[in-house]
Amino acid sequence: xxxxxxxxxxxxxxxxxxxxxxxxxxxxxxxxxxxxxxxxxxxxxxxxxxxxxxxxxxxxxxxxxxxxxxxxxxxxxxxxxxxxxxxxxxxxxxxxxxxxxxxxxxxxxxxxxxxxxxxxxxxxxxxxxxxxxxxxxxxxxxxxxxxxxxxxxxxxxxxxxxxxxxxxxxxxxxxxxxxxxxxxxxxxxxxxxxxxxxxxxxxxxxxxxxxxxxxxxxxxxxxxxxxxxxxxxxxxxxxxxxxxxxxxxxxxxxxxxxxxxxxxxxxxxxxxxxxxxxxxxxxxxxxxxxxxxxxxxxxxxxxxxxxxxxxxxxxxxxxxxxxxxxxxxx
Length: 330
Hints:
Layout: H1 3-24, H2 28-48, H3 52-74, H4 86-106, H5 119-122, H6 124-136, H7 142-150, H8 152-173, H9 186-191, H10 193-215, H11 224-242, H12 244-250, H13 253-276, H14 292-323
Helix pairs in contact: 1-2, 2-3, 3-11, 3-14, 7-8, 7-14, 8-13, 8-14, 10-11, 11-12, 11-14, 13-14
């Protein structure tokens, strides 16, 4: 057994232990923290499997943004989960056991782990993505080629889903209007001086790194989804340290709402432009007929920018909506 295999086993053991702890613990704050640990461990497993782009997304969204939103949601609910009657727990346990048994049974048809002649290795589309895409798309990162070009229409649907989800949350929780949120008294703010100084040093680098991930996703791990979450994390960190009102004054909701729609319009506008140029929807070759690779690169750059804008605005709006509600204690 190799050292890498031991690391995989250890990470999976952490996942199992964390999942069991999440199911057993009733304190919701601890559950939120453990969920972040679960996502971070999953990101480590993805890195071990050479799925760096997926690991990037899991770390940024699962361990980072989702944890912050969970904590914001705790302000609107109880801090401890209610006990579920056994009469209701038993059917849920039976459903979970049946689902797990079906998954284990279906896994028997999967190829052995790591074999060279598995369908994913021998299928013709594998060579198309890994070899031909370098000539057709001209982008070194195969993941970006697949997500933004080969299946760009599906990615457009994902962006629309993110925008729709943000609008739905705003409709349910309101526009993030502050309702009795407890302000931190001045003496407490003075004791946070070190935290405020460190945050001032970190936030510019977080935003700069978000821009790097945005415009370097075609050459390495990254893209609009990851960059949007990272950029939003910088704004949210500012709000957590300096207060929600300070963040709203710098990045107000009246700017975020049109920005969320702008990203979708930019993405869809590229597809409309290719249609008007005589091609198919999101056929980036039409953007530069004399140099299809340049057209692909330009199209991917524009649609990824649209993704980044929508994700950034949606994440910040979700945080404002949760953090701007009244605090309930129980």
